[in-house]
Amino acid sequence: ELLSGILLGQNKSLPAGLKLALRDTSTLHIVVASGQNLSMVAGFFLSLAGLIKRRQAIFLSLLAVVSYTLLTGAQVPILRAALMFGLASLATFFGRQKEGWWILIVTAALMLLINPKWVTSLSFQLSFLATFGVVVVAPVLLQYLHKIPILGQDLAVTLAAQLLVTPVIAANFHQVSLVSLITNALILWTIPFTMIVGGVALALSLIWGGLAWIVGLAASALLTYFIYIVEFFASLPFAWEYMGEQTWVVWVGYYLILSGGLISLSKIKK
Fold first, then answer.
1. Whole-angstrom distance, CA of residue 114 vs CA of residue 121
2. I want to staple 49 with a disulfide (CB 3.0 to 4.6 A). Which of 54, 64, 241, 260 is the partner?
3. pLDDT in tens, 97-144
4. Of the candidates 233, 148, 149, the residue with the CA atom closest to the CA atom of residue 187
């Protein structure tokens, strides 16, 4: 059930207890078809630019976007995220890295011209913010996290997405998880691997069930770890605090502080 939620956004069959644990740790957004997971998987491949040629990494990320979109049945939230990430990545592919952020904004603006109601859609907000985090914020964080063995590149991608979507999660679920940061840091790195391995196992199940079961063991191990971490931190007495309605000024302030911090980190590194 959890793999279905992460991979396909089908979370209706999740046990009630696990849903509450996901809510209390601010990780429920991982199992909805918001497009954030697509951005994270594609961003994972994009972050491999330090290990392989940049254009090869971008090509892999675009291939991941297309594959995931088809796997989920081309749901509207996923299509929006695929279009936003795809155009921003193409800008990078053709050597327009510095223009990727405004291409993303223009794409989102054109979508809102088609359907202005999308601006209040949770899935649209998560898709845009997560993609912005991957394209713009992750490279800044990667300058500091790339030295962490194995997990540094993926951690930069997942942390960037989490920083951008946190206010949206808090505003929609009216509570702030006090364990959100550590929980997400411990589990978000597993999402790209879980989705890739889960997708491969799903594809193999159509060809050779035995091999699919073996590959699925890796996904099962990652999901078991995911559930343990989420349920452990959700069980803590100080896991979350109720948060009432907040004015838009609070969230504007959050993003201004975040922007200032990222600009400072970027200048320090230079």
1. 14
2. 54
3. 566 677 778 878 888 888 888 888 877 887 788 778 877 888 888 888
4. 233
Other beta carbons within 10 Å of 252: 11
Between CA 180 and CA 173 the distance in angstroms is: 13
SS3 of the chain: CHHHHHHHCCCCCCCHHHHHHHHHCCCHHHHCCCCHHHHHHHHHHHHHHHCCCHHHHHHHHHHHHHHHHHHCCCCHHHHHHHHHHHHHHHHHHCCCHHHHHHHHHHHHHHHHHHCHHHHHCHHHHHHHHHHHHHHHHHHHHHHHHCCCCCCHHHHHHHHHHHHHHHHHHHHHHCEEECCHHHHHHHHCCHHHHHHHHHHHHHHHCCCCHHHHHHHHHHHHHHHHHHHHHHHHHHCCCCCEEECCCCCHHHHHHHHHHHHHHHHHHHHHHC
Question: What is the Cβ-side half-sphere exposure of residue 38, based on CA atoms within 13 angstroms?
Answer: 36
In angstroms, the CA 80 to CA 74 distance is 10
CA distance linking residue 168 with residue 174, whole number of Å: 10
Which two structure tokens, joined as six digits, stand for 66?
């297309």
- Tokens 């997405």 identify what position? 161
- Could you read off the pLDDT of 161-215 as tens digits, one per residue? 778 888 887 888 777 788 877 887 788 778 778 877 887 887 788 888 788 888 8
